[in-house]
What does this fold into?
Amino acid sequence: MIRELRKIWKSCFIGLLWFLALLWPMTGINSDGTLTFARPLEIWLIVVVAAVVIMLIYSANKSGMLAPFTRPVQTAAGGLAGQAARLPIWVWLLVALGLAMFYPVIFTSRPAHDVAINVLIYISLGLGLNIVIGLAGMLDLGYIAFYGVGAYTYALLNVYLGFSFWTALPFAALFAAIAGCIIGYPTLRMRGDYLAIVTLAFGEIVRLILNNWMELTNGPNGVLGIDRPTMLVPTFDDGFGFEVISLRKLYMLYYVALALAVFTMLCVYRLNYSRIGRAWEAIREDETAAELMGVNTFLLKLLAYAMGAVFAGLAGAFFAGRMKFVSPESFTFLESAMVLCMVVLGGMASIPGIILGAAALVLMQEWFREFETYRMLVFGGCMVLMMLFRPAGLIPARRMGRRSEDDE
Amino acid sequence: MAEPILELVEVSASYGKIKALKEISLKVYPGEIVAMIGANGAGKSTTLMAICGIVPVQAGTIVYAGTPITTISAERLPVMGLCQVPEGRRIFPRLSVKENLILGGFYRTDKSAIDADIERVFSYFPVLKERLNQQGGTLSGGEQQILAIGRALMSRPKLLLLDEPSLGLAPMIVQKIFDIISEINTQEGVTILLVEQNANLALQASSRGYVLETGAVTMADTADALLANPKIRAAYLGE
It folds into this structure.
C-alpha cells in the first residue's frame, strides 16, 4: 500500500516537471524574442498546488481515511442508480425531449440559444459521421466537405433561383449524397489509412473549389443574403389561410435545429439495428469475411458514405439558413477534426455518447473562451486524459466496450 | 461418376509478380470430402480465395454446379450454396455470437427460417447457445472455430470450403472439430473441400486428396492411397 502510494507520488512529481518543460516554451517565449520566467512559473505553481491537493485527497481515499464520508455518498448514489435503471428507457427519452423543448423558455439569453443551436448542428454532424466511422469503420477526415456542399447548395439555390429553405433541403441532401458517391466510387477499394488520406484530400479539394470558383461562389468573400428558414402559420384575419413567416427569432431556429437533430437520431437509430447496419458492422469487423458471407461490401460502403453525407448536407443547409452567410472558411480541416473528436470522445457507434461528445466539445470551447490562447491547450489536455482513461468514449456503445485484441 | 459440383480447370492466379497458382485443376463430386494438403505457401488458401472470387483468376475456369463462376463476385456465391470458412476463423470479434450467425445467412430475408437454422446450428454446437450474447472475440479459439463453421452453415451451403480448421487449436479440440466436419458431411449432405496442414487427420477424414506444391497440383489420389504413399508419409506425415 505504502509502496504503491510512493510510486504514484513519484510519477506525479515527474509528470509535473515534464509539464513545466512543456509549458515554458509555450508561455515563456515572447513574440519579440525576450524571455519571461515569472508567468510560466506562476501558471505552473497553480497547477502544482492543484495537483498536490488532488493527490492528497486521492491518497487519503486510497488508504481509507475518507471512508466515513464517501460510504454514505456511495450507497446513496448506488440507490439512485438502481432506481434510475428501473425506469423504462422511454421515460428518460421523454424527459430528455421535454427538457430540450423547454430549453429556450428556461434559458432566454441569446448566447444560450446560440450554443444550443451549435450543439444540435454538431449532433447531426457527429451522428452522420458515426455511420461512416462507427458503423462501417471507414476513417473519414474530409467529412466537413459534405456539410459545405449542403450549405452551398441551399445558399446558391436561394440566392440565384430563389428556392426557399424547405424546398432546397431535399436538394442539399441529394447533392451531398451525390458528392459522397463521387468521392466514394473511386476510393472505396482502399482501406484504413489510405482511405483517410484520400478523404482528407477530398475535403481540401471541395474547400478550394468553393474558394476559387469566383463566378459561382464569390470565392473567399462568401455568399451573402441567404434567406432564413420560413414557416407556414395559419391565420384567421381574412378567412382561414396561411401566412409565410421568416424565422427571425433565434429560439424558432432552435426548434428547427432540434427537429433536424431528432430526425437524424431516429434515422441513425433505425439504421443501427437494421440489416444494413449489421452488414456495416460486419464490414468494420472484417471486410473479407463479410464478403465471403454474401455482403456486397462495395455497395454498402458506398451507401454508408452517401447516408453519412445526407445528414451532413441537411445540417449544412440549416447552417447556411441560420447564418444567412456562407464562406469557405467554415469548412476547414479543423472542423472535420472537431466532428471526428466528438465521435471518438463520445463513443463510437453509441448514439447517447455522440450526443454527449458534441455537447461537451461545443461547451468546452465556450467555457474556455476566456483563456483565449490556452484554450486549445486545455482542449488538447482534456482529449489526452479522455483517451487515457476512457478509450472507448464517454458512453461506450453496448458492444464496443471490449475489443478482442485487448485479450491477446 | 456424377457431374462434379466444383471443377477447376487450369486455374492460375498471382499476387503482383509472384505466381501463386500455376494451372491448378481439381474436381469435387457431390457428397464427398476432399482434402487439399501441402506445405506453407503451397497455394492452398489462395485456391480457396480464387474459388470465392476474392483473389482474381488470371487464366482458367472455375465451374460450380454447372455454372462458370470464374468472374462472379464473392458476395453472390453464398446465394448459390457455396460458402467458405476462411483461414484463421475471421469471425466478427465485436459482434455477438447471435449476430455472427445471422450474418452467415445474410442473403436470406425469411426471418422464421433463419431462426430455425440458428436452432439447428445450436443442436450441433450447444456451446454456442450458452454464449449467445457474448462477443465473438471473447470466445476461446476452439469456440471461435465452431462459430465460424456454424456461421457458414447459416447460408445453407451445398459446398463448404474449410480453410485450416485445426489452426492454432489443441489436439483434443482438433479431433472434435473433425468429428463435426464428418457429421456435417453425412447428416446434412454438405460436400466439403478441406484445406489442411495436418495431413494425417485431413486424409483420414476424407475420401480423396490433392497434394499442392509451390502453386501446382503434384499428386491426386484416394485418401487411403495417399496415406499409404511413402513419399507423402515422408514429406507430410513426419516419418
Summary: Strands of chain B lie at 6-15, 18-28, 33-38, 59-64, 67-68, 82-85, 159-163, 191-196, 208-213, 216-222.
